[in-house]
Amino acid sequence: MEFNKIAVIGAGTMGMGIAWALGAAGKKVVLYDIKQEIVDTTLARIAKGLAKAEEKGQAPAGAKDFITGNIAGTAVMEDLKDVDLVIETAVENMAIKKDIYGKLDAILAPEVIIATNTSSLSITEIAAITKRADKVIGMHFFNPAMVMALIEVIPALQTSQETIDAIMELSKAIGKKPVLVKEGPGFVVNRILTPGMNEAAFILYEGLASAEDIDKAMKLGAGWPMGPFTLADMVGLDIASAVLNTLYTETGDPKYRPAPIIKQLVRAGWLGRKTGRGFFDYSKK
User: Fold this and answer.
1) What is the pLDDT of residues 147-191, one digit of tens each?
2) Catalytic residue among 122, 190, 198, 241
3) Is 190 part of the annotated catalytic residue set?
4) Is 4 a catalytic residue?
């Protein structure tokens, strides 16, 4: 199955990275969000990032023009009606996702696959509210999506083998390394990694060590490329909190309850790098 024109729903951090990765692989992309200014800001960020990469020799000459030339933006959902595939990256809220999928059902051709980039929500539940349950699948990229090689491919209970094969093939075609994962809360990476970040937050909350020293300990003692707080700030504390809450709700296991300091930071709006402050302060960096 060939995907030549792909819609990416959500122009946030993940949507930006996914659109960038697809455009770099020569795919035509339509980046959608509810407001045109959000889309325009993200398109400008992609262009700026590519220009900087070219200047530093991290991208070949002409990469900016090639990739940005493959990505268009819109705030009109009807503009997605002729795409071959949709990749949805909306916030980790089931009600919002269900609303989006209902609207997509009304405008997309019946054969179009919809892939969700959810970090932890049930793909089976999402698929059940569509008219194309066999064509709904999880396609979980990792941040930054234009750099990270892994994609978790997660079929819903209803997903057809044809859909699974098509998404596995696409993942490889855009230079990624897909792994097939059965549906379960948190899938593989977040099931292991997010509780690790959460335990670090409990250690910080208990005053056993500073955030800087906890990060240093995990880098030097466990070989992590970055510490748990640096990672949490990069992922976004709202995302980490949502994943933990899903794990807690789905399993009933109290080990997944978010640490109090994570709740406090989210309530303060200190979500990490994207807001300039999380466990660490990035406003002066």
Assistant:
1) 999 999 999 999 999 999 999 999 999 999 999 999 998 899 999
2) 190
3) yes
4) no
